[in-house]
Amino acid sequence: MIIKKYIVNDMKEAIIRAKYELGKDAVIISQRTVKVGKWYNLKKKKQLEVTVAVEENIVTKNNNINSIQNEYKETDMGQSIETDFIYEKASDIIKNKLVSYCDLYEIEDNKLTIEEKKNFLNLVLKNNCFEKKLELERINVFMGPTGVGKTTTIAKIAAKEHLVNKRNVGLVTMDTYRIGAVEQLKTYANILDAPFEVVNSPDEMAYKINKLKDCDMILIDTLGTSQRNKGKLIDIKDYLDAIEGEFNKYLVLSVSTDKDTIYSILDRYKLLNYDGLILTKFDEVTVLTNFWSIIENNTLPVQYFCFGQDVPDDIKDATLENLLDYIEENFTYA
User: Across 66-70, 104-108, 171-175, 219-223, which has the greatest mean pLDDT?
Assistant: First the structure.
């Protein structure tokens, strides 16, 4: 007998994963609630641990599924896959696996429902970057090039944490170079009635964070800078090195940026040891080139995706389900 455990958000996710990995004869034998996250985090996320079993001789379909997950076999792709607005910018590897998936489950590729598309991607993109999540630390730093929407993203997260999760949020900026940057974040802080601090040098960082000691969460805006400006990246690193204790670092990327530039940003910003990504400006693109570039080449968690200027509405957790629902609803083609 084959026994496998899944850590999932709900029973629906467990059933989908068990069905496509172990086959329709898999049986759920136990479930329990577990807390997932770092041991020192008092607000760990609750998830479901589901144990599933299947007889070992039921392997035919499972082996076929494993071949879809792990092997690349060139096939004749239907025109519908080549022109599907979700898959048209995917690699040939993904497209060919989709053909095999449709053959295995006897589905016409031009009649895939959005649920079947979700199931396919959950199957072939095991442990993909959109299903990984960081636990928000008490201190969270946001970095990235100028114009990607860092400050607005911080405002969205601050509003969500304050209004929905009832947390006392403090805002900090070290972006004193860009005209209006301080005032923009200060305006959001005033709207939320949140404490706000400006850090003018690395020497001030620990002192200014200590002034926010009563806050449940602190969100820090950094200087927006080109990935080619190593000097400013080193300046930001000096500020970050002055932060005491554990904190998360998010690299904010606009999906409207060209693919080569995104690769350059991902590479050059490694100097700052970012922990995860936030994708912005989905509302500004008409093709999903960068969605596929990131999902096929990045292993770090993608925490959120943003799709407009409204605070706090235009941000969601970057799960595959949320992303595909957004794409299905908002991407239209002639």
Answer: 219-223
Contacts of 179 (CB under 8 A, 6+ apart): none
pLDDT, tens digit (0-9, with 9 covering 90-100), for 324-334: 889 888 876 43
pLDDT digits (tens, 9 = 90+) for 179-227: 566 888 899 999 999 999 999 999 999 999 999 999 999 999 998 889 9
Is 250 in a helix, a strand, or coil? strand
Three-state secondary structure string covering 205-232: HHHHHHCCCCCCEEEEECCCCCCCCHHH
DSSP 43: T
β partners of residue 50: 6, 31
Q: Which two tokens stand for residue 121?
A: 């991607």
**What does the alpha-carbon distance between residue 60 and residue 19 come to, in Å, rounded to a whole number?**
13
E-strand stretches of the chain = 2-8, 27-36, 45-54, 139-143, 169-173, 196-198, 217-221, 248-254, 276-280, 302-306, 315-317
Nearest to 227 by CA among 256, 255, 251, 205: 251
One-letter amino acid at 242 equals: A
Distance CA 315, CA 160 (A): 9
pTM: 0.78
Which distant-in-sequence residues (6+ apart) come within 8 Å of 157 by Cβ? 140, 219, 304, 312, 315
Helix/strand/coil for 280: strand
Q: How many helices (H) and strands (E) does the chain have?
A: 12, 11
